[in-house]
Write a structure and sequence with these properties.
The structure holds 2 protein chains of 2 kinds. Helix content of chain A is 73%, strand content 0%. Chain A is built from 9 helices and no strands. In chain A, helix 1 runs antiparallel to helix 2 and helix 2 runs antiparallel to helix 3. Chain A is globular and about 50 Å long. By secondary structure, chain B is an all-alpha fold. Chain B has one domain. The mean pLDDT of chain B is 85. The chains are: A mainly alpha, B mainly alpha. Chains A and B meet through helix 2 and helix 3 of A and helix 4 and helix 5 of B.
Chain lengths: 195, 318
């Protein structure tokens, strides 16, 4: 298991570095997904299969798909790569690089001082996770669910504010006129519309 | 026999059987659709037209494997592989018979959920890499459809998990010795069936590739064997969901008289035919209807199913 752990860890680090240096946003997201999958393998090798499964389902499978979805909606073409290029100069990485180096130094220091290196302390299956979530950490679970409920209500409010007026085609027409775009209606409206 | 060698044999047998069955399903689907729609279907090549699949495969291998110049080349090539990888990997946790299972883990169902959520990438990336407006629309439909239906797909299975007390598929089958879970979990079964159809993007939930409006959606730009991989991947998904339905709700390999492997094959085949019948019988809904159905009816129903099952399990003091 130890060698699997190291391979997965190296893949995670490499994928994250590649994610940071990609100019194309979708490619960057793909590398981030690979990094999350590698972290899932790390969890698995450390004896937490349930966490590994959740990492794949929630992060790689749901959140990252939503990210890709949004990037697709933005319809970014070749010009984004050109726009990214001046931002991705090596100098732009100096600040984050220094900060990351401090953290790396700390990690190496801690690892060097550690006496024993045990990999699998215990298998943490679904049952153990459930028992501790709804046992000692019940308050945290409830707080997180209240926070998510708040976010849900907020998202609903933001999303429904525009729908108070007229709905459907007419609304998008108005937006298009406001934006100074062409207005071409389909069907019967064509003769009567302001066009 | 050496256990490692035995495992390799099991893996090869499952891989071969599953891939060939999925290819044959193309023929089966066309014949059954023809039967239900009062026509003949493919009946010229070989006995009952069985060699039609072989002819199609030869044709598809010799087609020009074209990558559009405007496409994002690497993502375009990689996307069809993702669906094959994720679906084939999921077969590793399916217990076909007590002996015939590649790996037994206590997170089998979660593994299935994870792989099916990674399968979305195949469609979304294919759509994005094609750099085509119709493909993009298909991909966005696929992403929102599969994300919404995944939510209650996971919830609809949790009733069986509660009754069996484990995420392990083998334990779930063994817990059905006395009664198939379709009876105490009928609502869960119906919800899982609907979610399964949506996950495999079969009619009536094939809006991502609605050919009348989106010109085949996410795979418009694909040709040759790359298209073939999407095609076979869809049938692999049908086999997978059918096998899972029989394992989760219909007692898997359990059954009287006949050997276990016959039972699981019969049950899986029944649900495959049901999938094809659905395609023959159902019209395609509108996209907003599909989404509001998912979120306003199916999700609350699966939550209610979960709460009631939990209450019953608690009351019976398990």
């Amino acid at each position: 298991m130890a060698s699997l752990f190291y391979i997965a860890a190296i893949v995670a680090v490499l994928a994250t570095i590649l994610m940071l240096t990609r100019l194309n946003p979708v490619h960057a997201l793909l590398y981030l997904t690979v990094s999350l999958l590698a972290v899932a393998v790390v969890f698995f090798t450390l004896g937490a299969p349930f966490m590994a499964a959740l990492e794949v389902i929630v992060y790689a499978g749901a959140i990252m798909v939503l990210f890709v979805f949004v990037v697709m909606l933005l319809n970014l073409g070749k010009h984004t790569v050109d726009a990214e290029r001046p931002l991705a100069r090596p100098e732009a990485f100096t600040g984050p690089g220094i900060l990351a180096a401090i953290l790396l130094f700390e990690v190496v220091f801690v690892l060097a001082r550690a006496q024993s290196r045990t990999f699998v302390l215990a298998q943490v299956g679904p049952r153990e996770v459930g028992l501790s979530l709804y046992g000692p950490y019940l308050l945290g679970v409830e707080l997180a669910s209240i926070l998510l409920l708040g976010a849900l209500v907020g998202a609903y409010h933001v999303g429904s504010r525009r729908a108070q007026g007229r709905t459907g085609v007419v609304r998008s027409d108005r937006v298009r006129v406001a934006a100074g775009g062409d207005l071409v209606r389909a069907g019967d409206d064509r003769s009567s519309g302001p066009a | 026999m050496n256990p490692t060698l035995l495992k390799i044999v099991v893996i090869l047998v499952i891989l071969l059987v599953v891939l060939n069955v999925s290819a044959l399903l193309i023929w089966l689907e066309r014949r059954l659709l023809a039967l239900w729609q009062d026509r003949y279907g493919p009946n010229r090549v070989g006995p009952f037209g069985l060699l039609q699949v072989v002819a199609d495969m030869i044709k598809i291998f010799f087609k020009e494997d074209w990558i559009p110049p405007f496409a994002d080349k690497w993502v375009f090539v990689f996307a069809p592989a993702i669906i094959m990888i994720t679906v084939l990997l999921t077969f590793a946790v399916i217990p076909f018979t007590p002996l015939f299972q590649i790996t037994e883990t206590n997170i089998a169902l979660l593994f299935f959920l994870g792989m099916s959520s990674l399968g979305v990438y195949s469609i979304v990336l294919a759509a994005w890499a094609s750099n085509n407006k119709y493909s993009l629309l298909g991909g966005m439909r696929a992403a929102s459809q599969m994300l919404s239906y995944e939510v209650f797909m996971g919830l609809s299975m949790m009733g069986t998990v509660m009754l069996a007390g484990s995420f392990s598929l083998r334990r779930i089958v063994e817990a059905q010795q006395h009664i198939w879970f379709v009876i105490p979990q009928f609502l869960g079964f119906v919800l899982f069936l609907i979610a399964g159809i949506a996950e495999t993007r079969r009619l009536p939930f094939d809006l991502p590739e609605a050919e009348s409006e989106l010109v085949a959606g996410f795979h418009s730009e694909y040709s040759g064997m790359k298209f073939g991989m999407f095609f076979v991947g869809e049938y692999l998904g049908v086999v997978l969901i059918s096998a899972l339905i029989s394992v989760l709700f219909f007692g898997g390999w359990l059954g009287p008289v006949l050997p276990p492997v016959v039972w699981i094959v019969l049950k899986t085949l029944f649900f495959i035919c049901f999938f094809i019948l659905l395609r023959a019988a159902m019209p395609r809904p509108r996209f907003d209807q599909l989404m509001s159905w998912g979120w306003k009816w199916l999700l609350p129903l699966s939550l209610a199913n979960l709460a009631i099952t939990g209450a019953v399990v608690l009351a019976r003091g398990r």
